Amino acid sequence: MLNQVYYYYFNSNYEKCLEISEKHLDNIDALTYAMLSSLKLSINDKALYYAQQLFIKNATSFNGLLLSKAYIFNSKFQEAFALLKELLTKNDSLYKEINLELALLFQITGKLEEAEKIFQNLLKKDPYDLNLWKSYAEIYFKKDYNKALKAHKELCAFWSQTNEKIKQGLLVEKIQSNTSNFQDRLQNKTKENITIIKIEEFLNTRILPQKAYLLFKLFKIEQSLTLFYSLQEFNQHNAQFWQNYAKVLEFNSNYQNAYHAYQKALSLHSHATYKFDLAYLLMRMGTEDNFEEGKKFYESRLFYAHNETFSVYHYNKTMQIFNKNGIDAFKNKEILIFCEQGFGDTIMYSRCLEKICQIAQKVLFAPQSAMYEMFKNQIKFLNQSEKNFRNLKVLKTLPKKFDYAMPICSLPFFMDIKLTEISQLKTPIKAYKKPQNKIKKIGIFWFTPNAIDSETTRNFELNFLLDALKGMPYKIISFQMQGDYTLSDKIENRAKKIKNWNDTLNNLNDIDCMITIDSAIAHLSLALEIPTIVLLKPRFDWHWGKFEQPKSFFWPKAKILVIKDKKDGATKLNKLIKTI
Hints:
By secondary structure, the protein is α/β, with parallel strands linked by helices. It is built from 28 helices and 10 strands.
């Protein structure tokens, strides 16, 4: 029995391993592999139960580590903390591993300084552990780029010194020791494998590529590009390296080389992330051929992320018939259009509904619930005087009966919409007439939590907008829904009146000019044909075009302002408002 358990586990057939193990849970080895297989299969509640039983039967540090992992996977962080601290009091041969697990737990719970202290203590006892250094350098990698870069520099300095010591014979490559002290043996063991070749490989393939990426995140583009360029020969088979290099090349407006770097990444690993990153690049470039290729790559987001679409079966069915018959497959059919991304994408891509309304017999459009009332009312208004959307029905819930289904962001692909067609299509939102305000009204929106920790930085400070508007004879109206801010009595806060997107639309009806970041309200304001200034940071999303020459193919009338310097940006914004 155990031979079967071992065989299936070490051949990664965790389902079969779990099946056999569960028939012999009275055997402690079978119980162990039942627990491990459950972890591998992400059956977290079952893994926790087996880990608890295992620890009750044999309360070793190893079983305690397994139980702590199960606690973490089940988000039982307090239980994990208590257990790991208890295990540390044993000070046995797994002392380092227990500390590593505790450091990981501190990272997961956002206590990064505590995690840093553990790694620093471990490195004092075992300074020649490459993996330990890598984990230490990655503590702040996603949260604080400056601290992460500092850790990477510290790591590089230490290993450069170690290299010199080896060259000078001050550090021998292999040390024999008969000491019984665990920490001494551990340090000696890691020293045994320290060679110049191994250090250089470690730095060139695992550490310096991360440093190059951190430089990119900190907008030190030239330094980042120089480092990436120098590391190419060492990372010929590292797909992640080429994806990150491609991002920096793209941001530097070196689009052709960015394209080749993405292709290199895909040749090594056909990963969905690489595909839709390449799609963003191609669509950003803004030529017909690039856009056509980008549309195809963009579909990969649904092939891998099945949870993003309401039915994999229906999407695959749509793709199969499209591959067979092209756009003609949807003639005289009932087509369901569902929304799988954010509010802004729904508004932006909604103008593509006109094309499918021209082809299908009936279009069943199911927007997000917060947008249902808005789209329903707009289609009703438009159908009173126009025929563009007569066969479109806005739904509150997904229907049971239809022929084919497709995401709204896939309409350019399935409807064969060309880049030059997009701005010609009519959006299903009725434009407002220009208001006749004696005192002009300016709407402002400056923050979205969706931009935090994202690839593109979008948020601005309220004070930046107020400085640009200071002394102007206009009334300022805030549409800001989220964030920590305080408005003066002179600013009208309309966010208090807004419960859904129909409220937002109604509250925009007397706005002379909207100043907003890249957000859903920007798309709505542009759809209503309100003069709109879109404020962008130097690194912005693909649908605003090239970095050096921003332009929206969905909203040609958008006034795009890239802010690189606050003082200069405020001056430019002030002038643009006066011009409008």
